[in-house]
Write a structure and sequence with these properties.
Blueprint: E1 2-7, E2 18-26, E3 33-39, E4 46-52, E5 56-60, E6 68-73, E7 78-83, E8 92-99, E9 114-115, E10 119-121
Antiparallel strand pairs: 1-2, 2-7, 3-4, 3-8, 4-5, 6-7, 8-9, 8-10
């Protein structure tokens, strides 16, 4: 199976930038889609962005379009989330996740059976 390790979360001022990374190891040949989700305590986990492991084609939730960019480096088995113009509402635990099928625009948790441990972003 696939293992995921996130990094890059920290405290940053509003308007600042961060780049999150997620390194995948193990059975990476089984990866179809990789995504970023976030969760605030007491609220539902929400999809932020996703991209196909092969071929790209990113999807974003409306509130981050134009500010966040998701990308994948297959050679490094790493997923990235570049976050610019950060807002206090972006504060959350950010999770990397893997699905075995192609990404869908819905960014549904149900499509992602494998999860990392999370990295905290505080704005």
């Amino acid at each position: 199976h696939v293992q995921l390790v996130e990094s890059g979360g920290e405290s940053v001022q509003a308007g600042g930038s961060l780049r999150l990374s997620c390194v995948a190891s193990g059975a990476t040949q089984d990866i179809g889609c990789m995504g970023w989700f976030r969760q605030v305590p007491g609220l539902e986990r929400e999809g932020v962005a996703a991209i196909n492991w092969i071929g790209g084609n990113p999807y974003y939730r409306d509130s981050v379009k134009g500010r966040f960019t998701v990308s994948v480096d297959n050679a490094k088995s790493t997923l990235y989330l570049q976050m610019n113009s950060l807002e206090p509402e972006d504060t959350a635990m950010y999770y990397c996740a893997v699905g075995r099928s192609w990404c869908r625009p819905s960014l549904s948790q149900a499509d992602f059976p494998i999860w990392g441990q999370g990295t905290q972003v505080t704005v």
